[in-house]
């Protein structure tokens, strides 16, 4: 059993400016990687800009990361980082810019390599230092070594084999205040999936479960506020950000399981948001698992049974119906993924996946 999360984490409001010295300590010029607009509206970029200027560190911005970032975007980010002479990378945003920041940091370090390098498991994984600043409350990417990219040519998503932990994560719930309710709802369900998929996992240990246990209790504190539809408090945002980070620490050790595996074709084919797509398969995944374990997990998050969790998911995420051909693709790709099947603590046949998909 081991526990390894080599990321220094600050969870406090105003932490970007308060820890400017550490943020600026990773190099002379940062590549700041963001999505199209949110980082510029929720003040996270302003804080980073102020912190770097305060310490005399330069920066360049790459703000072209789309949701579910593609390999092509990573290569454009790499070209910008190399052209600007950057020597560390700061990812600001949801999982998409944070995952992109890790992959871009890898590719700047290996500036002469082609895109195939990203999925070459025999290639070296050294990367420029990465700092992550999450502005959604779902992926926990700020404490995992995982970078999930869209492989446009293969019409699928997949984690790169390189393990790239950020060195520093700065969590400030204020940045979530500008997020649409749909982003908050979808990403809180992603965090819940991470915790349940990590616990119900053949790789789970007492240490990974410690993160799930603590994370579920924090998650439960703001569960009803999110369902209510009324404005959320800073305390709610800080809770959900913390729960998401703890969930990230859990999956950093176990990986995710069947709901994530089944979600990827749904996102690629229908563009359903990541957390919403994972949540689609969560009730079915739980119905197949050990009832005693499931009962404990539900109770800890404040649910009475699987039906009440499903009702919560429907009410908060409002999922569209997934076409049958896409669900069949989800089943096909999951059956072809030995690692996802091996991580599931119960026998999985095609019939099991049909039930999980609701077919
Ligand atoms: P996201 O794709 O990063 O962002 C979704 C949307 O939310 C974007 O339109 C973004 O706008 C907007 N947004 C983000 N923060 C906002 C804020 N504070 N205010 C207003 N709008 C905001 O969503 P995500 O669910 O966090 O990340 C999903 C990605 O993470 C997927 O690619 C998934 O595969 C990956 N993932 C990674 C891990 C891991 O361990 N590394 C785990 C789970 C999932 P902008 O584009 O303008 O920023
Ligand atoms: Zn996820």
Topology:
Elements lengths: L7 E4 L3 H4 L1 H4 L5 E5 L4 H4 L2 H11 L3 E5 L8 H13 L4 E6 L1 H15 L20 E5 L13 E4 L4 E4 L8 E4 L9 H19 L6 H16 L1 H6 L5 H21 L3 H13 L3 H6 L2 H6 L3 H11 L4 H12 L6 H12 L2 H6 L6 H7 L3
Parallel strand pairs: 1-8, 2-3, 2-4, 4-5, 5-8
Antiparallel strand pairs: 6-7
Helix pairs in contact: 5-6, 7-8, 7-10, 8-10, 11-16
The chain binds NADP nicotinamide-adenine-dinucleotide phosphate (NAP) and zinc ion (ZN).
Zinc ion binds next to helix 7 and helix 12.
The DSSP helix count reads: 18
Question: Roughly how much helix do the residues carry, as a percent range?
Answer: 40-55%
Spatial ordering of strands, largest sheet: 1-8-5-4-2-3
For the residues shown, what is the average pLDDT? 97
Distance between the termini: 38 Å
Low-confidence stretches: none
Query: What small-molecule ligands were found?
Result: NADP nicotinamide-adenine-dinucleotide phosphate, zinc ion
Structural class: alpha/beta
**Main β-sheet, in a few words?**
6 strands, parallel
| Total number of beta strands | 8
* Overall outline: globular
Describe, in short, the structure shown.
This protein has helices spanning 15-18, 20-23, 38-41, 44-54, 71-83, 95-109, 181-199, 206-221, 223-228, 234-254, 258-270, 274-279, 282-287, 291-301, 306-317, 324-335, 338-343, 350-356, and strands at residues 8-11, 29-33, 58-62, 88-93, 130-134, 148-151, 156-159, 168-171. With 359 residues, it is α/β, with parallel strands linked by helices.
